[in-house]
Amino acid sequence: MRVRRVVTRRGRHIRGYFPSKKMKRMVAWESLLERDALLLLELSPGVVAYQEQPEKLAYWDGDAMRAHIPDLWASLHDERTLFIEIKPSSELTRPKVKTKYRQIAEQLQEQGLDYRLLTEEGIQQEPQFSNLKQLLYRYNHPASPLPTRSQLAAAFYLSESIPLAKCLERFGSDVTDTLIAQARLYVDLTQPLAPASLVQLPAGERHATIYF
């Protein structure tokens, strides 16, 4: 349960809810950049669960103990937990703000806690961000019927990877997009998707892929 209410009617900031299939509920966000970060958490195979405004963390700012509530918490496939703060890069040009988050990160690391500060540069990386936005529809509205595990394995019987064009020819675009969105097929989303893009069955560390 989050420690404070995110979406209120007061204030000039844009706020809203992200419909999370992974969490089976609406996840609150209080900036467009946070909303964009939720897309990455939702579609990252390596993120098992996540939550907004998870808990209060204490840190020493040089004068007094302060409370800090990270924007997000994520439970990862490798059993690590990660606290995440979302900030526009423009805010980090202010020395006081930059010092604050450096202190928080260092002190949480000393406590054995993972803490990551994400800006638009890490969240809205192209072409990955556009690829994920394109896949979101089929993630939430999967095509049907989908191939069985043995049918997928048969497609890769002669090779570990096949061109995206061959997947589209064999399964169709809706099914292919669904399989990629569900992480049942792997393609490098940091590159533009093209007919020659190589598609593989997920294996090993690809099950733990995170997009940030």
UniProtKB/TrEMBL annotation:
Domain TnsA endonuclease N-terminal: 45-120
Molecular function (Gene Ontology), one example: nucleic acid binding
Source species of the chain: Chromobacterium sinusclupearum
Residues in coiled coil: none
The protein's name in its UniProt record: TnsA endonuclease N-terminal domain-containing protein
Pfam family, any one: Tn7_TnsA-like_N
Superkingdom to which the source organism belongs: Bacteria
